[in-house]
Amino acid sequence: MNINECLTHFIGNLNQDYLDSLSDLTDEQLHFLPNDRSCHIAFHAWHFIRTEDNIINFVCQGRKPSVWARQGLAERWGLPAVAQGTGMPLAEARVLRLPGLAPFLQYARDVRADITPYLANASAADMESIVKVVPYGERPKLQQIVQTVLAHGNRHLGQILVLRAMQGLGSETS
Predict the structure, then answer these.
(1) What is d(CA 101, CA 77) in angstroms, rounded to the nearest whole number?
(2) What is the pTM (predicted TM-score) of this model?
(3) What angle do helix axes 101-121 and 3-22 make, rounded to 10 degrees?
(4) pLDDT tens digits for 1-59?
(5) Do the Cβ atoms of 61 and 118 come closer than 8 Å?
(6) 63 exposed, middle or buried (CB, 10 Å; 0-12, 13-18, 19+)?
(7) Please, what sign has the CA dihedral across residues 174, 2, 116, 140?
(8) pLDDT digit string (tens) for 113-168?
(9) Which of 29, 85, 114, 165 is the right S-S partner for 171, CB 3.0 to 4.6 Å?
(10) Given a cut of 60, is residue 174 above it in pLDDT?
(11) Are 71 and 114 a contacting pair, CB within 8 Å?
């Protein structure tokens, strides 16, 4: 398996796990807060998909506008245009609301479809080129993708699965 196959496989699986973990939730379950120190599933999902969109589109593809920007979702949904949750105050993250599950899942599917060709075809030289991602600094694109999309995305998926379990919902993914 080469690096392109590896990235498309594991990021594709991660994206499918997000879709699977969200697809059966009600609005109440999506925004469930178990205590005053946590965020809800909607925040974790929005934050990850926005981050993935920004890293793979904007950062790795030379400032290519994100799906978020191209679709005008900030304006349509009344959410931040640039911020995607990193460093967001807890109080702000807890009140964030998605416009509904179906539009959010469509955004997630659109991001997956948009980034897959890049992941499948990026050259080794491109993956070795240096880009800056706050808070990780300047690193090769491959390292930024693995850190910020795969590792970070799996961390948030784990939080989503725990929040599902706390509500008595299944917590397994494919």
Answers:
(1) 12
(2) 0.96
(3) 170
(4) 999 999 999 999 999 999 999 999 999 999 999 999 999 999 999 999 999 999 999 99
(5) yes
(6) exposed
(7) positive
(8) 999 999 999 999 999 999 999 888 999 999 999 999 999 999 999 999 999 999 99
(9) 165
(10) no
(11) no
DSSP letter string, the chain: --HHHHHHHHHHHHHHHHHHHHTT--HHHHT--SSTT---HHHHHHHHHHHHHIIIIIITTTSPPPHHHHTTHHHHHT--SS--STT--HHHHHH---S-HHHHHHHHHHHHHHHHHHHHH--HHHHHSEEEETTTEEEEHHHHIIIIIIIHHHHHHHHHHHHHHHTT------
Domains in the chain, start-ordered, CATH in brackets? 3-166 (1.20.120.450)
Q: Which pair of tokens denotes residue 157?
A: 């998926």
pLDDT at 136: 87
Which residues, in sequence order, are bridge partners of residue 130?
A: 140
Pairing of strands 130-133, 137-140: antiparallel
Half-sphere exposure of 103 (CA within 13 A, CB side): 12
Q: What is the largest CA-CA distance in the chain?
A: 47
The size of the chain, in residues, is 174
Of 100, 85, 76, the closest CA to residue 39 belongs to 85
